[in-house]
Structure formats: C-alpha cells, structure tokens
Amino acid sequence: MLGRWIVAAMVALVLMMQSAQAQQLTVDPETIVPLPPRFDMEAPASDVPPEIARFQGAWIGTWQDDRHILVVEHVRADGHADLVFARSDSAFNGMNREWWRDQATVVDGVLTMTGFRIFRYAFDGPDRLYMTATLKNGAVTSGALVRTDPARLAAGDRPNDWPWPGERVRIPHLTVRTPDGTRPITLEGTFYPPSTPGPAPLAIFTHGSDVGRNQLRSWSFSTEAHWLRDNGFAVLAVMRRGRGSSEGINGEETFGRDHDGGLTDVSAGVAEAVEDLESAIAYGRTLPGVKPGKVLLAGQSRGGFLAMHYAGLKPNEVMGVVNFSGGWYPYGPVTTPYYTNAGRGAGANVKQLWLYADNDRLYKEDLIREYQQAFAAAGGNAHFELLHGVPGDGHLLRLYPERWRAVADQYLTSLDR
Fold first, then answer.
1. Which helix (H) or strand (E) holds 303?
2. 291 shares a domain with 171
3. Within a 13 Å sphere around the CA of 91, how many CA atoms are in the beta-carbon half?
4. CA nearest to 336, candidates 263, 279, 394
C-alpha cells in the first residue's frame, strides 16, 4: 500500500512539473495596446490642404501616462478624418485596453474627436502631437505621440522604449549612493526644454506621497509642464526616491509615533524629500536651455508642501512656489509648525501661490485655513485660493485648469525672473 502511494505521489509531482513548464510567460497587461487586424490606410487626395493632410498616418505615445496609439486612416479636404483609437489597460485610471474606429475633424490645426471625452491633437513639432482629453466636468488629462510606420505597427512591431511626453533623464543624487558605494543613486526625471529660443528659468514639479499601487507609477505632469512652458519656463518633473523608476527606498512614510500609535514626528521623511528636491534642482541647472538663477518650485499634495518647505529653508534659491493642494500629513499638531517655519524662512521675498479646494478628501477646509493662517502670521507671502465646486475630490484640483489657470498665469507674470 505504501509503495502504491509513493508511486502515485511521484506521478502527481511529474504532472505538476509538466504543467508548470507548459505555462506561458506573462506580460504586463499595461504594456499591451490592441489594434485591428489591418488598417484601411488611404493617401490624402490632391485637394486636401497640407495642414490637414499631415495628420494622416500612425502615431504612438501616451495618454495620461498610459500607452496610446492613434491611426488616422483617411483625411478629406473638408477636414473630416477616419481614425483608429487604441489604449492600454490602466489599473490607476480604471480602464481596460481596447480599440475602436471613430471620426474626427481638423479645424485650425487641431484634430478633434468627441465622445465620452473631447480629444484634441495638435502639432508640437514636425512629427510630434500634443494631445488633451477633456471630460464634461472640465477635468483635463494629456499626452504626447510621435509619428511611426503604420505597416510595421500593423505587423505587431512595437518600440522597446515607448515614446514619453518629455525627455527622460536620470538625476544623480547628491547624498545617497548605491549599496556598493560605487555611484550615486539616480532619480527619474522628465525634462521639457524651453518652447522659445534663448535660456529660460527652471521650474521643478514633483508629485504627492504615491504609496501602495501608485509607488511604481511614473508621472510626466505633461499638462502642468506645457502650462509652465507656455509661460516661459523650462520644466523638470522629478520622481522622488523609490517612486516610478527612481532608485533608492521611499522613507517618507517613516513617522515618529507615541506609545499609543499617535503621530509625533514627520521630520525624517521631510528631510529625505528635501535631499531629493535639492538633487533635482542641482541637476536641472545643468540642462540645456536653462537660465542660471533662482528656480520656480511647484508640486501636487506632498510635492506642494515640499516646494513651500524648501522655499523656507533656502529662500535665496527660489523665485516662487505653486502649491497644488499641498500637505504632508493631515494632522495639524505635527504639521502646522512646518507652515509657520516656512513663512518665517521665506518671508515676503518669495511670492507663492496656494491653490486648494474646499472638498479635498485629505485636507479639510479648517486644516487648510489653519495652514494658511500659520504661514501668513509668520510673515509668509502667499496668494491663497480656496476654490469651490471642484467635481469629486478637490484634492485633484490640478486636473481642472480652467478653474485655476487665469490666476496662475497672472501669478507667473508677476515673478521677478
């Protein structure tokens, strides 16, 4: 009986090994962009104006930092276009990969497709498109695409390095080295050179806490970067350590707590983030087209807090701060003193713009006003906007540029560059 049991177990083990060997290797679903089996490509007729005809072809890139393909199959002289729209899976945005055929129009140099969003594509270079997607509630996301060979695309060819909205760069860290000590760790950055000839002042944009499922996601901040470029800046978006493809370990969640688990200290994480931002500033000043001198700091959530905090530490390096929904942790007894210190350090010399919404899911209105009052009472100089009626979660205010762009444009114009 025992012998039969051993034989049966060995057979089962062999079958399991064969089954394991037969399993297909998996692919990250967010790298797959489905397409139809063929494209119905047709060369533009002779009567199609060049400003319309140049949209025809295949384009590959990103939309809201996920993979996106656009194939414009036909264009006509009246601006009518037939196209294929395709996108990848996106766990963050809750979208499934899919493709569909649709129609669009080209008017005044912009290809527009309407539906659940209004998609607009405009040239941002000879073979490059900048795209925006606007929801009915006003939320705007964006991306960039480059021209590609439709025949190779239809055959299944895909680039190893998927096109990205800006230039990917690696930022050497000023203080942290790899475990073997041979080199500095590097942070992921996206650089947007000036849109006009001549050097331009540098703007740095950085993200929020980005923990959990968001930790390995890279952010291009292409919408904010184009806004800043339109206002005369070169832009460097930076992923702090342990986020996106940045090396190192994210230590920003290292909190001091008392015996009962209550929050008592966030200084270790704040200090780490300051080192990352300092490294980005030093590297950004070496990039082509960047003007020497003070920098503009901008950020979302924890990134907005970091911009304000850094300006208080080193006011002589900072021309201004744009703070979108800024905060480190929603607990006033520990975090409000940082706003007091930042106001005292930056004083009246660093003009700042603070943009918040009264329906922020993380930072309630009373706490936001507490932060602003502490900053102002200590001598800080910030134009404070608490906006009403932002759809959904007001913490995502930055996605609604029509609500803040006018005051933000005016603020940027007022800076001494």
1. helix 302-313
2. yes
3. 10
4. 263
What distance in Å separates the CA atoms of residue 368 and residue 254, rounded to the nearest whole number? 23
Distance CA 120, CA 133 (A): 6
Q: Which is nearest to 306 in space by CA: 332, 273, 339?
A: 273
Same domain, yes or no: 100 and 196 = no
Q: Please say if the pLDDT value at position 332 is more than 60.
A: yes
Average pLDDT over residues 293-311: 99
Is residue 355 a contact partner of residue 411, using CB atoms and an 8 Å limit? no
Which of 190, 172, 202 is closest to 244 using CA atoms? 190
Domain count, the chain: 2
Domain identity same for 206 and 80 = no
Give the pLDDT band of residue 28 (cuts 50, 70, 90): low
Q: Residue 109: how many CA atoms within 13 Å on its side-chain side?
A: 7
Q: Which two tokens stand for residue 5?
A: 């049991």
Residue 315 lies in a domain: yes
Mean pLDDT of 208-222: 87
Residues in contact with 389: Cβ distance below 8 Å, sequence separation at least 6, in sequence order: none
- What is the pairing mode between strands 140-148 and 128-134? antiparallel
Provide the whole-model pTM: 0.90
The pLDDT of residue 355 is 99
Same domain, 254 and 323: yes
Q: Do both 281 and 400 map to the same domain?
A: yes
Tokens of 199: 């050097």
146 torsion bin: left (phi>0), alpha (psi -120 to 50), beta (else):
beta
Distance CA 412, CA 309 (A): 19
In a domain, 49, yes or no: yes
List the domain range (segments joined by +) for residue 97: 29-154
Percentage of the chain exceeding pLDDT 70 = 93
pLDDT band for position 180 (cuts 50, 70, 90): very high
- What's the rounded Cα separation, in Å, for the pair 274 and 78? 54
**What does the pLDDT average to over 29-41?**
87
Q: Which residues contact 67 (CB under 8 A, 6 or more apart)?
A: 30, 31, 33, 61, 87, 88, 162
Confidence of residue 29 (pLDDT cuts 50, 70, 90): low
Tokens of 237: 């978006």
Residue 4 lies in a domain: no
Cα–Cα distance measured from residue 346 to residue 343, given in angstroms and rounded to the nearest whole number? 5
Q: What is the CATH number of the domain that holds 218?
A: 3.40.50.1820
